[in-house]
Amino acid sequence: MIKFDLFGKNKKKQTVDSSSDYLRDREYICENLSFQAAEAYKMLRTSIGFSLASVKGCKIIGITSANGSEGKSLCAINLAYTLALQGSKVLLIDADLRLPTVAKRLGLNKAPGFSELLTGQTENVIQKSELNPNLMVITSGGLPAHPSELLGEDRTVSVLNSLGRMLDYIILDLPPVNEVSDALNVSRALDGYVFVVKSGYSGKTLVKQAVEKLKFTNTEILGFVMVDDDKDSIGKYGKYGKYGKYGKYGKYSEYQTSENVDGAGSKQD
Ligand SMILES: Nc1ncnc2c1ncn2[C@@H]1O[C@H](COP(=O)(O)OP(=O)(O)OP(=O)(O)O)[C@@H](O)[C@H]1O
Ligand SMILES: [Mg+2]
Prior knowledge:
- With 269 residues, the protein is an alpha/beta fold.
- It has 10 helices and 7 strands.
- The protein has a single domain, classed as P-loop containing nucleotide triphosphate hydrolases (Rossmann fold, 3-Layer(aba) Sandwich), CATH 3.40.50.
- Strands 3-4-2-5-1-6-7 form a 7-stranded mixed sheet, with helices on both faces.
- A hairpin with a 6-residue loop joins β3 and β4.
- Adenosine-5'-triphosphate (ATP) binds at residues 21, 25, 28, 65, 68-74, 96, 99, 101, 176, 227-228, 230, 233.
């Protein structure tokens, strides 16, 4: 069994990334959330608690969506934070090993992280978030050669189970289902998925396709989270937005070393 120093004092600190995207996103994160958004996350926390009431011990939840840029990472961070607020011991893992954002958003070290843990390079990967003493974070680490296969290995299941012995919740920020197979491959390590849909942005057909794929995994979709009905941002990430057909996870993206599953279509139907 792997032993982890989860809530010890020996954790590193880093400053929050000051690039404009992440600064802008800070208004959607944790203590900066509007009253309504914070309440919505508390409702989500309650619903998840009921949905997984029969799961003994740590509940392991994957956050995913149909395609890129639909709000998965912000949802994962806010859900983990909201669970920690109620006193639950929570570990947030950036399991989007291809386009990780948690380290930058929370001002943590990107590596070593989950990929180094899964490949057995080190177990010293747990960082303190500074947001709440109950919230620990494992950032993505470096980009592994085969992220999807790595997440599907038996070791991933045993690592998460070992971590879970000291925790109430593990929240995994995952890549989108229609673009790469990672979120599907890690299914057997999870108790359920939370599926994020971005209002005015996630296409109906693409959402349906993604849900169909998740159904094959036999891991339950616990619920759907709809984010962002802000008209300004709908314009910004519209039909032919920057994550179109050859989107950033896609065949012609900067991640062409990673296997491309179905390729992304346009964002809206
Ligand atoms: N609740 C929200 N309200 C308004 N805007 C949001 C919300 N959630 C996300 N966004 C916007 O969507 C963008 C993408 O969010 P995020 O990085 O969480 O998506 P993602 O699905 O994790 O993307 P990726 O597929 O790249 O991992 C953010 O930069 C933010 O501007
Ligand atoms: Mg993300």
